[in-house]
């Protein structure tokens, strides 16, 4: 069973190096007309520390989701290497979990049975596995609903189940592809806080490395240790912005000068200074 710390307790000593290394990675897909490879990601290089929460933002079609799929082992590389804990990735593995925008729960299974599913598939639903399931259902705040079916749950509740299911196998790398994109604004903000609370609840030595994709700049700043800004396709890293604000981050921080400045840095990297009010290329008051 995982060792849990207080939700507001920061990592002791911060993340440790070299969980994930992406080196000269090219990703693409065959053109339906010519059959030639169309690049989605070009010569990508990034290192992510163990226990770090990295958010990727970028324009539509820049390869963000394609990169997550490559990290999950679902699409082949057209060049370069991806190493997790020093080992080259050569396909899907139990050391990674991918959370999609839609919860994709099995409708004939209860909350508990959906969370158990990954352990059953890996033949690990033993006593420690069941304890882990119970622990995560409690951690995401659904112990009162563990006998309910997906159609009886709200959108936010379904994504809580999705998160618990992704974490139950104790992956070293958690991949999240716009998991709150289909939620209303209020539920989305609640789930941002819940995600960080659950991510931090496991002790610093066991905390998952997380890669999160979003189009929402405010969401990126609020969640991330680092924000990687992608260029238009074929995607490459245009900016690597560190978010140094301590955790826990309260909602009030979103109104601070620091938060606004960080958001402006990301917007400038995405669209240029003219896109930021008061930036170069715009008229002042």
TrEMBL record:
Family matches, as Gene3D superfamilies: P-loop containing nucleotide triphosphate hydrolases
Single GO term (MF): ATP binding
Ranges for domain ABC transporter: 20-257
Record has Transport as a keyword: yes
Keywords recorded for this protein, A-Z: ATP-binding, Nucleotide-binding, Transport
InterPro entries (UniProt xref): AAA+_ATPase, ABC_transporter-like_ATP-bd, ABC_transporter-like_CS, ABC_transporter_ATP-bind, P-loop_NTPase
Protein name listed in UniProt: ABC transporter ATP-binding protein
């Amino acid at each position: 069973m995982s060792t849990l710390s207080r939700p507001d307790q920061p990592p002791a000593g911060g993340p440790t190096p070299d969980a994930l290394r992406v080196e000269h990675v090219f990703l693409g897909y065959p053109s339906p007309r010519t059959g030639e490879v169309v690049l989605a990601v070009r010569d990508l290089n990034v290192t992510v520390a163990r226990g770090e929460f990295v958010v990727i933002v970028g324009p539509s079609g820049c390869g963000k989701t394609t990169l997550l799929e490559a990290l999950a082992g679902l699409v082949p590389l057209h060049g370069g290497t991806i190493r997790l804990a020093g080992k080259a990735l050569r396909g899907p593995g139990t050391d990674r979990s991918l959370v999609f925008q839609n919860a994709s729960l099995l409708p004939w299974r209860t909350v508990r049975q959906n969370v158990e599913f990954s352990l059953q598939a890996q033949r690990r639903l033993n006593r420690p596995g069941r304890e882990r399931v119970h622990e995560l259902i409690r951690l995401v705040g659904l112990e009162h609903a563990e006998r309910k079916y997906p159609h009886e749950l709200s959108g936010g509740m379904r994504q809580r189940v999705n998160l618990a299911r992704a974490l139950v196998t104790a992956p070293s790398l958690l991949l999240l592809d716009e998991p709150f994109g289909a939620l209303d604004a209020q539920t989305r903000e609640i789930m941002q806080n819940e995600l960080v609370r659950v991510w931090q609840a496991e002790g610093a030595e066991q905390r998952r490395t997380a890669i999160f994709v979003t189009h929402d700049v405010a969401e990126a700043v609020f969640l991330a240790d680092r924000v990687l800004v992608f260029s238009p396709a074929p995607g490459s890293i245009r900016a690597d912005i560190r978010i140094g604000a301590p955790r826990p981050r309260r909602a009030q921080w979103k109104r601070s000068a620091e938060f606004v400045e960080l958001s402006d840095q990301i917007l400038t990297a995405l669209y240029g200074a003219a896109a930021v009010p008061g930036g170069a290329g715009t008229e002042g008051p």
